[in-house]
Amino acid sequence: MTADPPDLASSFHTVAAEYDAARPDYPDALFDAVEELTGRPLTGADVLDIGAGTGISSRALLARGARVTAVEPTPGMAARLHAVSPGLPLVRGSGNALPFRDDCADLVCYAQAFHWTDPERSVPEAVRVLRPGGALALWWNVKDRRVRWVREQAARLRAACPQYHGYRPFRESPLELARFGLRITTATVHWERRVPVATALLDQLSRSYVAVLPAADRERVLAAERAALLAEFPDGQVVEPYATDLTVGIPYAPRR
Questions:
Q1: Burial level of 1, CB count in 10 A (0-12/13-18/19+)?
Q2: What is the DSSP letter of 189?
């Protein structure tokens, strides 16, 4: 039996430690792009980081001088965030019903998380809590499929994981956000990281479509990935290329 979509989202409860240890950070150039497209510095901005996970994006935003409140619905992820960053304000909640008053944020952001929401609910909620001049920012770290081995890995995972999904950044169809009364701009930041094979495998284990597999199937998938990565990178150091897709939406007019 395969998991249904809600189980995919809840699967992060069981892999929070792997997620925190192995998921990629975000490059400084991404936050430069956020500032450029929103038209304001992150320093001093009140930011709601929705679907904050274990706090990877929240900590990066804090480092840029923002005042950050992390919002995370999943118990395991929230517990890991609190354990790693106990001083970071954390609220349990969902982007579909933000537990915040109107006009309280300069930036609402989703790092690797917006695809878990219902845009018919989450976008109006973001607009509601934004101050005049505020912005909604969505970004995804996506492995760069212009690279052969990345395409081959995606094909293997698609074949092996019944619930496999690729990210669907909204920059593919900006009109999907524009219809909510937002002016849309986009950017892509290309970068790479070098990690040991073990870290690359932990990253795969933290993916929802792998985490929900039966244990024996999960072990087979990870063993196949280990063999493929070592064949590609015999020194055991994996060079992962990323294209970080950013979409920024700014309301055309203040909410009435």
A1: exposed
A2: E
Measured in residues, the chain has a length of 256
d(CA 105, CA 125) in angstroms, rounded, equals: 12
Angle at 215 between CA 16 and CA 54, to 5 degrees: 5
For residues 83 and 73, what is the distance between their CA atoms, to the nearest angstrom? 16
- 204's tokens: 């795969």
User: Backbone phi, then psi, for 220, in 5-degree steps?
Assistant: -65, -45
All domains in the chain, ordered by first residue: 5-143+167-193+236-251 (3.40.50.150)
List, for residues 58-74, the tens digit of each pLDDT value: 999 999 999 999 999 99
Are residues 126 and 153 in contact, defined by beta-carbon separation less than 8 angstroms? no
Q: Give which of 101, 92, 108 is closest to 45, Cα–Cα.
A: 108
> How far is residue 117's CA from residue 235's CA, in Å, rounded to a whole number?
40
- pLDDT tens digits, residue range 11-57? 566 788 888 899 999 999 999 999 999 999 999 999 999 999 999 99
Closest C-alpha to 56, from 98, 12, 3: 12
The owner of tokens 């792998």 is: 210
Q: Are 181 and 248 in contact (CB under 8 A)?
A: no
